[in-house]
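Extended Data, panel c. Modelled sequence:
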Amino acid sequence: MEKTVATNKKAFHDYFVEDTYEAGIVLVGSEVKSIRQGALNLRDSFVIIKNGEAFLIGMHVSPYKMGSYFNVDARRTRKLLLNRAEINKLRGKVEQKGFTLIPLRVYFKDALVKVELGLCRGKELHDKRAAIKEKENNRNLQRVLKEYNTK
């Protein structure tokens, strides 16, 4: 059973998502409690691969209100748990021109905190305009169909 805690909506606006991967994340106990309350932000976060390990940079987890000196820095670098084959595959794709790893959502899978990573390629301005136009057209179509079905 999965319970989504946070999604990175800006990532879908700024990038084309080519492929997705699931990764575990190394957290401290007070961070898990804070994430359970939904106190995290994925905006402007990204993943780097360094020395054969993957790290999540820029994810903001607000300090747990009931925590004491156990609270850690809200924007600290967090290690991601991926197997060696996945890391090597991702490293090869990230080194290609224009690809980057972006966290798309954070969710609980049973009792574990998981991060869905997207292998993304950046959108240009005309791509963003086309995506907005398509979304508005779909919204208008749904509105017209709803009116037609209620009559």
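The chain has a mean pLDDT of 88. This feature is highlighted in the accompanying rendering.
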